[in-house]
Amino acid sequence: MCNSCHCDDIKKALIVVDMQNDFCPGGALGVKGGDKIVSVINQYIKKFTVKDGLVVFTRDWHPENHCSFKEYGGIWPPHCVAETKGVEFHPDIYMPEKFIIISKADTSSKDAYSGFDSTALDSQLKKLNIEEVWVCGLATDYCVASTVIDALKLGYKVKLLSDAIAAVDVNTGDGEKAINKMVLAGAEVYRLK
User: Fold this and answer.
1) Tens of pLDDT along 116-158?
2) What is the CATH number of domain 12-190?
3) Which of 7, 33, 109, 117 is the most buried (most CB within 10 A)?
4) For the chain, how are helix, strand and coil distributed in percent, rounded to 5?
């Protein structure tokens, strides 16, 4: 079994989920320790870009009246509103020369936790013959889990990068439960060290 991200037999992509200011400490929906995983994510990004691997950044891109906001019947405070500082990627995230950005939940009436939900992510990966995705980012128990589960349903091999995720843990243990769910669905847990 090969631990390198660049075996010649399988094409891989790195999906960095929602590493946005509003999901990091100090943001509207800050995840505890969300900024602590930035340096590890950067190592994965560099590992992929060394051999021209594909790096995908997903992001929430909400209108001001998004249905996930409490004021409009949702459960969250306003966050990741398009064209605000909160929607921007964490300033220390390494942005390689080439990457793809996938915006999700960008209409007021539709929420989306998964990077595959109502986006072009699957079609773009298939066009590039990607067979395996490595997934990291925020938050373990919401957008990371949904992206991983959808990737598995769509037929991708999935590596969950356990050293590069952090959970909201609305209820204590939600992050661990989400990891178990992803593993049961077929994801393989991977760490750099």
Assistant:
1) 999 999 999 999 999 999 999 999 999 999 999 999 999 999 9
2) 3.40.50.850
3) 117
4) 30, 25, 50
CA–CA distance, 42 with 38 (Å, rounded to integer): 6
The CA–CA distances, whole Å, from 41 to 47, 141, 192 equal: 10, 18, 10
Residue 82: name the closest of 50, 53, 104, 112 by CA.
104
Distance (Å, whole) CA 69 – CA 111: 10
| Mean pLDDT in residue range 76-95 | 97
CA-CA distance, 15 to 57, in Å (whole number)? 6
- 3-state SS of 28-49 is CCCCCCCCCCHHHHHHHHHHHH
pLDDT-based confidence at 193, cuts 50/70/90? confident
Residue 153 phi/psi, 5° resolution? -60, -30
Question: Is 34 in contact with 99 (CB distance < 8 Å)?
Answer: no
Say if residues 113 and 142 touch (Cβ distance below 8 Å): yes
Give one DSSP letter per residue of 135-174, joined into a string: EEEE-IIIIIHHHHHHHHHTT-EEEEEEEEEE---SSTTH
Residue 123 pLDDT: 98
| pLDDT tens sequence across 3-48 | 444 445 679 999 999 999 999 999 999 999 999 999 999 999 999 9
